[in-house]
Amino acid sequence: MSDLHRTVEAIWRIESPRLIAGLARLLGDVGLAEELAQDAFVAALEQWPVSGVPDNSGAWLMATAKHRAIDRLRRRTRLTRKHEELARELEAREKAEPDLAAALDDEIGDDLLSLVFTTCHPVLSTEARVALTLRLFGGLTTDEIAHAFLVPETTVAQRIVRAKRTLAETSVPIEVPRGAELASRLASVLEVVYLIFNEGYSATAGDEWVRPDLCEEALRLGRVLAGLMPSEPEVHGLVALMETQASRLRARIGPSGEPILLAEQDRGRWDYVLIGRGLAALERAEELGGALGPYALQAAIAACHARARSADETDWERIVALYDALAQLAPSPVVELNRAVAVSMAFGPAAGLDLVDALTSEPALESYYLLPSVRGDLLAKLGRRDEARLEFERAASLTQNAREQRLLAERAAACGAHHNSRPTI
Amino acid sequence: MRVMVMVKANEQSEGGVLPDEQMLTEMNKFNEELVKAGVMLAGEGLDASSKGARVKFDGDKRTVIDGPFAETKELVAGFWLWQVRSMDEAIEWLKRAPFKEGEVEIRKVFEAEDFGDAMTPELKEQTERLREQLAEQQ
To answer: How are strands ordered across the β-sheet holding B76-83?
Structure first.
């Protein structure tokens, strides 16, 4: 790849979300906006080798894309009245505001928000939301998304094409929802970001246990959102949760790629830049009155671990209390399972096992590998090794991740050998 | 990936002269852009080297040298820690900084995997021992 090509790619990464967001507002169509943004970059690749990279590449791209938008709308053989009006309006705006890029600047924040609310619209499947958000709001290429999610590029390309078609067909308005709708739609946006993070933090498929690049992408999306919606506590809550969890990424894998559990991590390898950022974001969420939001609560739990200088110093009683609050707010068997682990750490393995046993009949956890994994751990601590071994074996058979399978198989084997007292989570 | 972006000193920064209002405004705007893009992790400006010190190592001998230091253009006057996807992206961001003169250096921060085999089992054991000692002190 030539130097210029790489430069243009880097500029795409920086500029394309804003460019697409601005065009989407002008045209009312996300798919068309992306197409025109791409056209503008192709034009850059053609012209910049001769003319040199312009000082304000963003404004250049916006102006180019807009001219193409006008051309495109005019050239369409079957011009609808709407397109005609749109083209005229664009031209009029350009005459009225010679420095359109600068004029757009003020609206960029709103445009970007409208864009992300559109790419995370509930009319789309979760997979489509993830792909479209990374593509349009994150500036990733289809190839990069495919690589990150270990699926063929054609699959991602199809998802994106279909998602754009769905958005156009259902005439989803490109806007920031208001009033009562805002809360549920924001939850959808945050869910998409956290999903991306989690796929990186605890990969559900493949040979690697973590994929830090995906975590970095999600963190970046989260930070951008926090800048766009500074007064939404849950956005800061989510950022706090991701920053704090990501701070453990490099302590979470051993030299040969094996997972290292929280209690055994070398805390000197935690990333204190990220911990500091996470704690600051949590503080912001709390200041905004969002201490009891689902992400803020999870961030508060993560912060308990981050603040503890060693595993023994962890404030498990506080963690139990936070899980109590979380279980009330968003009751789920997975939260109950985590709470059980916290209870076992605060009040002993027997107390934890009682809670876990109550969950074994839970249909939602039937094939969830962490249930037998936690149960095996508690049984092992109570010296019930044969039962523990069976649970670890069952857990190993339930996870798709090769690294986790190996870890669980080792723990099963250890139950046959010597006493093992490693806690889980 | 992360990069450290190092802004070099000049006569003004070494003379303790703060940037003028216009520069500060432009720099704030640039920093805001970086934050909004989710790129900036940290950043600080450094005081003149006259307020700093160096420790020189020679075998077991340590000599303290007080600032200021002569080689102005080689001194670091401020830094950013950025999270970017590539060195090209870092370069693109830096081009947008409001500096009018001087040189700013971008360096890639080592990631865990960059160490590869350098982290030998012995080194790991040593780290482990250190950690145990620390735990005992607590």
So the answer is: B40-45, B76-83, B2-8, B104-108
Q: How far is Cα A322 from Cα A241, in angstroms, rounded to an integer?
A: 14
- One pLDDT digit (tens) per residue for chain B, 138 residues: 999 999 999 888 888 888 889 999 999 999 999 999 999 999 999 999 999 999 999 999 999 999 899 888 889 999 999 999 999 999 999 999 999 888 999 999 987 655 555 555 555 555 555 555 555 554
Supply the pTM of this predicted model: 0.84
Short-list A317, A319, A325, CA closest to A290:
A325
CB B69 within 8 A of CB B75: yes
CATH of domain B2-137: 3.30.70.1060
- Give the B-side interface with A, CB within 8 Å: 35-39, 41-42, 81, 83, 85-86, 88-89, 91-93, 111-112, 119, 124, 127-128, 130-131, 135, 138
Which phi and psi angles does B77 have, rounded to 5°? -110, -5
pLDDT at B124: 55
Q: Does A266 touch chain B (CB under 8 A)?
A: yes
Contacts of A255 in chain B (CB under 8 A): 119, 124
ipTM for this model: 0.79
Cβ of A228 within 8 Å of Cβ of B135? The answer is no
Write out chain A residues lying below 8 Å of B137, CB-based: none
CB spacing of B36 vs A228 below 8 angstroms: yes
Which residue is closest to A264 within chain B, CA to CA? B128
Residues in B closer than 8 angstroms to A247, CB to CB, are none
Q: A11 — contact with chain B (CB < 8 Å)?
A: yes
